[in-house]
Amino acid sequence: MPELPEVEVVRRGLALGVAGRHIAAVTVSHPRTIRRHELGAADFVGRLAGRRIGSASRRGKYLWLTLEPNGDEGLMAHLGMSGQLLLVTPDTPTQPHLRARFTFTDAGLELRFVDQRTFGGLALVPLTADGAGGAIPLPVAHIARDPLDPLYDPAQVTARMRRRRTGLKRALLDQTLVSGVGNIYADESLWRARLHGARPTETLTERELARLWAAVDQVLIEALDAGGTSFDALYVSTEGASGLFERELAVYGRAGEPCPRCGALIRRDAFMNRSSFTCPRCQPRPRRARG
DNA sequence: AATGAGGCCTGGTTGC
DNA sequence: TGCAACCAGGCCTCAT
């Protein structure tokens, strides 16, 4: 599942593979893929042709390519659950779930958006000031900075978190509080910090939250170093490579296996129509639980 | 305003 | 064997 480390791997691939190149032509083969591009496929395709790509940026799980000459527009992408941005030779056979295709004037590798479950999408969007001298796509300007952002401020996130009246894991997954963390890295971070996701946010101490942010940083960086987590092979880099972090997962997807720290059996619980994995001994469920 | 539930999607897996 | 139900889950919309 693409969360922050996976998206960052893809961003790096795009920075190396498409920055500075001129788009020749674009084709869109599934309308849902550009559902966030309000003016439709013809507008999307027409406005991209001939544009030069500037840089590849990211916030949380969103990434975007700035478009020149003005740099005030961007091609925004979200991978959803199964989106892939692949750099392939033009003669590569059409993938079963190919949704969009970008060719370039230099006849080098082309860019393909492949997305089995179509939760992902592309849109051509205006960029707006991010309040710190940078730019951010207007539709995602409300997303919080992520832990790898130089301007990310854990003390501020701690303060906001303690004002919430919700459960810890729910808050950790809220992209307007801190972005980039999804179900896998939320569970891994909570396990490392020995916190249960059902802790009411207002009961968390500064010390506990400091422990959590340290764990989040660690998990994200280690996952990035491993090239991300390719839990069901739906996530790959621009070169088609799987990430290797799955083998490092302590709890996610490991129900019934021993906790790597204490040996108690990992449990799976339903949470928000999905799953949460915890160690019952390292992360006892609080008496006053929320979520 | 803040919080939470529901819906969108497809294909692999599971159970009958 | 065949079919239906289930599951993965990020994020948007809507209700409270």
Give an overview in words.
A hairpin with a 5-residue loop joins β6 and β7. This protein has a five-stranded antiparallel β-sheet. The model has no long low-confidence stretch (mean pLDDT 93). The longest helix has 20 residues. It contains six helices and eleven strands. It is α+β, with helices and mostly antiparallel strands. It is 23% helix and 23% strand. It is globular. The chain binds a DNA duplex (16 and 16 nucleotides) through loops.
Can I get a quick summary?
The chain has 291 residues and is α+β, with helices and mostly antiparallel strands. Helix content is 23%, strand content 23%.
Helices and strands, with pairings:
Blueprint: H1 4-17, E1 23-28, H2 40-48, E2 52-59, E3 62-68, E4 73-78, E5 83-88, E6 98-104, E7 110-115, E8 121-129, E9 135-137, H3 154-163, H4 168-172, H5 183-192, H6 206-225, E10 267-271, E11 274-278
Antiparallel strand pairs: 1-6, 2-3, 3-4, 4-8, 5-7, 6-7, 8-9, 10-11
Helix pairs in contact: 1-6, 5-6
The structure holds a DNA duplex (16 and 16 nucleotides).
Elements, N to C (H/E):
HEHEEEEEEEEHHHHEE
Estimated helix fraction: 10-25%
Overall average residue pLDDT: 93
How many angstroms does the end-to-end distance come to?
23 Å
Which structural class do you get from the secondary structure elements? Answer: alpha+beta
